[in-house]
Every structure is written in structure tokens, then in C-alpha cells.
Design a protein that fits this description.
about 240 residues; alpha+beta; Beta Polymerase, domain 2; 2 domains; four-stranded mixed beta sheet; 10 helices; 4 strands
Length: about 240
């Protein structure tokens, strides 16, 4: 895993070099998203989320093989691909509900041409439909996360809350912003806020050191307790 902030930026430089030297005529744009784009990533914990817009799908496998060489150096890179045609035609995941608002606000161009203004903005009805579909998926699969690493619990909880908030017209994605919004806008939901504050405090601790067994148990219990509260918030008209 990457141990310091500089190593994350070095990994991004490697990505840019691969694109420029080997695929310059075939890549439209490369963006970095998530915590790395915002600058609040935790070295050794956070992934590097890349969004790559290709001129066609023909080079995806070749490009992925090149990027795997970076990943083989224990650099946590995740890549999502789309094409320029899909973007312009409104068929790309970048134009879908929560992803659209998240990408427009935080996606940082690191190579190629700016394409944000080419993405059709989804309607509120489309945003709500997408959020509902995602929530049904998370509700059905949440228990599967119990057997996976601690990061999955953090990710599932905050991601689900982000989707719920986007369905209500509130667009945030950093964990700190999610907690702030819940504490202020839904302050009457005391149990929800109690649980999300516990989970966030454990996230901060986890960024500094390994969680104790007691802390892990607290995290898993808080995540299990909060999921019904999140879905109850989604069903409400607040």
C-alpha cells in the first residue's frame, strides 16, 4: 500500500505517462475522483479512483494491462471506463444520479480534454430512480460485507448515506461532510447521528492506527444498527 501522500501523486504521474506515451491518440480524458481528488485521502487506506474516457473500447484491455503494472507495485488503483460516445449520448455511468453530481463537483482532470460540459444532466426523477435502485442493491447485499475487511463496512455505510442524501437533493461525498449534514439537517434523528458519529470517529482512528478488537466489534455493531435507520430516512419525506 502507499504509505505517504507523495507516493499517491507519483502513482498519478505514472498513469499520465502511460496515457501520454502509449495511448495518446486513443484516450479522451482521465480524471481522478474521490478522496484523492478532494485531497482528504488517508495514505495507506484510500484507493486512487480513476475515470477514463476512451475514444473507443478497443484499447481498454491493453490499457488495463498497463495499469495493472502499477497496481502490482501495491498501489491501490481502481479504474472505471466509459467512452466519449457514451458520455455524449447520456449512456455513461458518469451521467447517472449520484455519480453525475459527484463527478461534476469533484472529478479532477489529470490528462486529456475536459468533458464535464458534454455530460447530459439527469433529471430529479432520474436521480431518485437511480438512488432507489442502488439502495435496493445495498439492502440486499449488505450482509455480504460482514465477511470482508473493515474498509468495506466504512464504505458501505457512507456510500449508502451519500446516495440517500443525493435522492433528497443534498450532494456530498466526503465522510466529514456526510456527518456534518446529518448532524445539522437531520438533528432530530438522534440515534442515526449517534451511530454515524461513532462510525466516523472510528474511521479517524483507523486512519492513524489499527483498530482494537473491541473497536472492531463497536464498528460492526454500529454499522448493523445504522443501516435500518438510513433506509428509514430514505423512506421519509424530510
Amino acid at each position: 500500500m502507499l504509505g505517504n501522500r507523495e507516493s499517491y501523486f507519483e502513482a498519478l504521474d505514472e498513469v499520465k505517462n502511460i496515457c501520454q506515451i502509449k495511448f495518446a491518440d486513443e484516450i479522451c480524458s482521465v480524471y481522478v475522483g474521490g478522496s484523492v481528488a478532494r485531497g482528504d485521502f488517508v495514505p495507506g487506506r484510500s484507493d486512487i479512483d480513476l475515470y477514463i474516457v476512451l475514444k473507443s473500447n478497443e484499447i481498454q484491455n491493453k490499457l488495463q494491462l498497463e495499469l495493472e503494472k502499477i497496481k502490482s507495485k501495491e498501489k491501490p488503483i481502481s479504474v472505471a471506463y466509459t467512452t466519449k460516445k457514451e458520455v455524449i449520448g447520456g449512456q455513461s455511468f458518469l451521467g447517472s444520479g449520484f455519480e453525475y453530481n459527484n463527478f461534476i463537483r469533484e472529478g479532477k482532470l489529470i490528462y486529456g480534454q475536459e468533458i464535464k460540459d458534454r455530460i447530459p444532466k439527469p433529471t430529479r426523477e432520474e436521480e431518485i430512480k437511480t438512488a432507489d435502485q442502488c439502495l435496493k442493491f445495498f439492502e440486499a447485499s449488505y450482509k455480504d460485507y460482514e465477511e470482508e475487511v473493515i474498509e468495506r463496512y466504512f464504505s458501505a455505510t457512507f456510500r449508502t448515506l451519500c446516495i440517500v442524501l443525493s435522492g433528497k437533493g443534498i450532494y456530498v461525498s466526503s465522510k466529514k461532510d456526510v456527518v456534518t449534514v446529518c448532524n445539522k439537517k437531520f438533528k432530530d434523528r438522534k440515534l442515526l447521528n449517534e451511530k454515524i458519529n461513532v462510525i466516523y470517529d472510528l474511521w479517524i482512528t483507523w486512519g492513524r492506527e489499527r483498530l482494537t478488537q473491541e473497536q472492531v466489534c463497536t464498528l460492526l455493531k454500529a454499522c448493523d444498527d445504522i443501516m435500518p435507520l438510513i433506509f428509514d430516512l430514505w423512506e421519509s419525506k424530510e
